[in-house]
């Protein structure tokens, strides 16, 4: 009998890294083949099971993705932009599946990420949940139906440890609304309003970010028209939805031609 495909988890001590380890353990279709942390991290060289507060599991935490991919088909990566670009190079060299949940990339970093990953099956999404990816499609449709006379505002809320704003999800929703309006988001986005901002520009797509406590991730797309409002909402209450989406992407990506994909491809939306 063939062994299940091996998966390497990066940022394994992080919120998503821990959740991925848990979901892989619960899966009968994938096995944990490696665990990485940033160079200098306390967990490097230690047994992952012990570091997570359990019993030894024989997976020693490392920092070299190329070495880890010798025994794995895929890497699931929820870390930070610079780390993810470096991982894309290693995934490209190995011809591996690289599932990327990391957010907060600049436009230049996104270009670099795409070229660094040549040779890999690169699947990236600012949100891996089924609900959000469906909401993205609905947002595009509603924006197209209502038109730019209805003001669009994306409001997101996350835990206080999040380092990027607007969230990757908020940007996906903003992109979808811009597509629905037939414009480029970069031409109409209004971010970080403060002080005497002047009146709202017609056709603008606004972003607001709330940070606090342990909020997993909440997103509203508000369409404000004359005399009425429509609000589309997604609320995440469990990070497992992102981890399970990422593992679904791994299974989908194995055997696919190298290239760049997103969750729309994985979910067939
Ligand atoms: N696409 C999605 O569905 C989701 C995306 N995210 C994104 O995932 C990223 C991580 O989120 P969290 O787990 O909450 O953050 P976190 O801060 O808890 O974890 C990040 C981990 O990455 C590690 N790391 C940083 N550089 C590294 C390197 N060079 N090599 C190996 N590990 C490295 C850190 O040490 C840390 O353990 C963020 O960008 C977040 O926005 C989070 C949840 C869902
Ligand atoms: O950092 C997080 O936590 C999350 N990040 C993603 C984002 O930036 O949208 C997805 C989710 O909302 C949680």
Automatic annotation (TrEMBL):
SUPFAM superfamilies: Glyceraldehyde-3-phosphate dehydrogenase-like, C-terminal domain, NAD(P)-binding Rossmann-fold domains. Residues 131-267 form the Dihydrodipicolinate reductase C-terminal domain. NAD(+) binds at residues 11-16, 37, 101-103, 125-128. GO terms for molecular function: 4-hydroxy-tetrahydrodipicolinate reductase; NAD binding; NADP binding; oxidoreductase activity, acting on CH or CH2 groups, NAD or NADP as acceptor. Its EC number is 1.17.1.8. Keywords: Amino-acid biosynthesis, Cytoplasm, Diaminopimelate biosynthesis, Lysine biosynthesis, NAD, NADP, Oxidoreductase. It is found in: Cytoplasm. Belongs to the DapB family. Homotetramer. This is 4-hydroxy-tetrahydrodipicolinate reductase. It comes from Roseivivax isoporae LMG 25204. The gene is dapB.
